[in-house]
Amino acid sequence: MSFDVDVAARRGEATVGARFVAGDGLTVLVGASGAGKTSLLDMIAGLLRPVRGHVRVGGRTLFDADTGIDVPPEQRRVGYVFQDARLFPHRRVQANLLYGARDAARLAEVAATLDIAPLLRRWPRTLSGGEARRVAIGRALLSEPAFLLLDEPLSSLDPARREEAMRAIERVRDARAVPILMVTHDAAEAERLGDRVITIG
Amino acid sequence: MSELLPIVRLTLLVGGTATLGALPVAFALAWVLARWRFPGKVLLDGLVHLPLVVPPVVTGWVLLLAFAPAGPIGRVLEAGFGVSVLFRWTGAAIAAGVMALPLMVRAMRLSIEAVDRRLEQAARTLGATRWRAYATVTLPLAAPGIAAALVLGLARAIGEFGATITFVSNVPGETQTLPLAIYAALQRPGGESEVWRLAAVSVALSLVALVVSETLVRRAGRGVHVL
Fold it and tell me: What ipTM was assigned to the predicted interfaces of this complex?
């Protein structure tokens, strides 16, 4: 199984968590607002420490409360595309893309796939929401992750940009052997992109 | 004009040494106050800000007690290195540094707190260790604030009077910085014209510092690289 997750974390008064296993391809996570979807991704990425349970991806244990395993985020080989692109404002697009790149020679190829080649010299603050999102996806891909986490990668995009970004994700899904976990609350999006849908909360 | 130059040079030496010496201490304190949570944090915060609210004469007197030959720090310096900072420019730099410290900590702390920690998280997921994330994301984004803190600290240090004159007295050529020279000229009959010249130089120096720090802070607001 690509994803084998069983975690819980405290978020203020409430406890959020989920348990699921999922195979290869693109798995869509759906759930109401506040169900803890982003917290779940943060726990898988190693940014939020679960109070119990385990996280295994592609057979590798990233977290296990019982044995005390807690791989730091930089060693998890995660490609995390945040809901709010989180580009580094003091670096141009190209420097953002190359920040975690294992092979800088792949820059041109990734930029072409995501249609961001004309943006390389720009500063992040001059990008539109859709452009920033695609740069964030490119930055995650260039770090050659073992798995991808996409947090509402299509929200707050107008229909044309949405279609663009969706095609980019489809290309990534079909071209790469890495499992993808994607959070969304859009049923049509889930239907089109997902190999399976898991409801949490 | 020729009698002005040594005074300006000494003032810049004392102020520059004070600011650069205070920089690592101020940064460490700013980081701890911005990022750590621990019991006694309020106490540390208060202690750091003390020189800002206590009369400078009191700060100078406390320094005198500490660095006097029988004082806790003075004894160590005397026995270990055979040096004393009393009546020396080094003592003036210590006084100026202590007085500048709270302002520098404040400016740096605000700029560290203003850095979006989610950007550090993004860097971590991209394979950066905690330290690389600090060095490549946090530090560059906080840099304008740190630079502004340096300028503010320098301005405060070259204007220091009360703590300096109490701690290391007013020795021409050794501890007599611009403000102390102005004070001495005021005491002297017929010293008015020198007061005018010295005052003009201090105003000009302060103005330059102010403009530079304003520019840096503005850039910080835009999130642009300065250093």
Answer: 0.92
